[in-house]
Write a structure and sequence with these properties.
Layout: H1 3-8, H2 13-20, E1 24-25, E2 31-32, E3 36-38, H3 55-66, E4 71-73, E5 77-78, E6 90-91, H4 98-108, E7 114-120, E8 135-136, E9 154-155, H5 158-178, E10 182-187, H6 192-197, H7 212-215, H8 217-230, E11 236-241, H9 252-264, E12 269-273, H10 290-294, H11 300-309, E13 314-317, H12 323-331, E14 337-340, H13 342-346, H14 350-355, H15 372-376, H16 380-393, H17 404-426
Parallel strand pairs: 3-4, 3-14, 4-7, 5-6, 5-7, 7-10, 8-9, 10-11, 11-12, 12-13, 13-14
Antiparallel strand pairs: 1-2
Helix pairs in contact: 2-12, 3-4, 3-16, 4-5, 5-8, 9-11, 16-17
Length: 427
């Protein structure tokens, strides 16, 4: 279906529900029971001092599994406790927490749901005071207005890069043993994999940088190590930026070349997103032209471009609002899975409604405080929704009407105290 047809397509509710209810088979034979996927959101439901999974994850992911979603991707699980992105991250370095991970996986795979663990390393994208130091492919600071929040990173040595690659593989191996259905590499939104791909963040002159092909070496090494440890029958996906939306950053052409390389290397699913903390397009801030926003999916034009050139399963996340918009994107052939995130933080049972041919009850709105530096970085687009996840994890209900300013003030107090307690415990 041509793009203009996609824009004008409006499947009737019953047909739209049937489209979204179709199962999807990955190249390795794994079946996702419908076309609705929960994209990763930061839960920060790990223990404060030692980054272990908590029972709240079982409650939260059990709720989503029972809510009808076909594929559920966890929030970022860090592969190194020394490199966290946020207070409360879970870190998987070995089998220390295998029993807790098994309980989490069992809850999240109820009702035929696939639960994938998203694996991540923040690189330079971790706030001051959280880690003893931040690392990155190159020692490139954040832009001046953000430098007060993020320290200048230290450039990684080659032996450290190789260790990080092994850590990704080890964490994936543990995820499989714990009963997760698959894993996803977080290669988007400015974290370490994304930093290696970006000519702005990666200015190395060795075998890990200096050309687009060398910048891709890290992500391909990570995929290769994961595949070596988990085998071909275990799904491995990646979340990848369509572009960084940043001067001198990762472009659509480089992203398309990366997807070609990943497809050739045997990736099972590519989730398309975009942006970084410095240019948060994934929240809708400048992510697309008005015509694309009208079609709801922020990055669908890039998805159409990928579909024309690469035979790889695609998931698209960002901007979906209506039953008709989701179904039209799938029916067009531009994407295979519809990624939902913020909607499921305020309406965890929305997939069941969509699969009955009903519209979501909640409308996603911009979360702004009126404080320009905070709103420019779209900080509350993470923090506000994280608060909703905590409520669900505690067995309660989300609060869609909560004030962003109140949530910001409460979060500052909580995070400051949590950082102080964690650093004191690690001293």
């Amino acid at each position: 279906m041509e793009r203009q047809d996609v824009m004008n397509a409006s499947p009737q509710p019953g047909r739209a529900a049937n489209i979204l209810g179709q199962p999807f088979t990955l190249p390795n034979g794994s079946v996702i029971r419908n076309r609705l996927a929960k994209s990763a959101m930061s839960e920060t439901l790990g223990t404060l001092h030692d980054n272990r999974p908590t029972p709240a994850l079982e409650t939260l992911y059990g709720r989503w599994a029972e809510g009808g979603v076909g594929l559920c991707i966890s929030g970022n699980v860090m592969i190194d406790r020394r490199a966290l992105g946020e207070i409360g991250n879970i870190a998987v370095e070995n089998e220390r927490d295998l029993d807790a991970l098994r309980r989490w996986a069992a809850a999240g795979t109820r009702n035929g749901t696939q639960l994938w663990m998203q694996l991540n390393h923040p690189g330079k994208q971790a706030p001051k005071g959280l880690n003893r130091e931040n690392v990155s492919p190159s020692a490139i600071p954040f832009r001046p207005d953000m430098a007060r929040f993020f320290p200048v990173p230290r450039a990684l040595a080659e032996a450290e890069i190789e260790d990080i690659v092994r850590r990704f593989g080890r964490a994936a191996e543990v995820a499989r043993k714990a009963g997760f259905s698959g894993v996803q590499i977080h290669g988007a939104h400015g974290y370490l994999v994304s930093q290696f791909l970006s000519p702005h963040h990666n200015q190395r002159g060795d075998g890990w940088g200096g050309s687009a092909e060398k910048r891709r070496r890290f992500v391909l090494a990570v995929l290769g190590e994961i595949r070596r440890r988990v085998g071909r029958d275990f799904p491995v996906g990646i979340k990848l930026n369509s572009a960084d939306f940043q001067r001198g950053g990762f472009t659509e052409e480089e992203s398309l070349d990366s997807i070609r390389a990943l497809a050739a290397a045997g990736i099972d699913l590519v989730e398309i997103s975009g942006g970084t903390y410095e240019a948060p397009a994934m929240t809708g801030a400048g992510a697309a032209k008005a015509s694309t926003r009208l079609r709801e999916a922020y990055f669908i034009e890039f998805g159409e471009k990928v579909r024309r050139e690469v035979a790889v399963p695609l998931m698209l996340t960002g901007g979906f609002r209506s039953l008709a918009g989701m179904a039209a994107a799938v029916e067009s052939g531009a994407v295979d899975l519809v990624g939902l995130a913020r909607l499921l933080a305020v309406e965890p049972d929305a997939p069941a409604r969509l699969l009955r041919g009903e519209e979501p009850l909640q409308a996603i709105r911009p979360i702004t405080t009126g404080i320009k530096p905070v709103d420019r970085m779209a900080l509350m687009e993470v923090a506000w929704y994280t608060r909703q996840l905590h409520r669900i994890g505690a067995g309660g209900q989300p609060r869609p009407g909560e004030s962003a300013l109140y949530a910001f003030a409460s979060g500052i107090l909580q995070n400051g105290w949590s950082t102080f307690k964690r650093n004191r415990a690690l001293a």
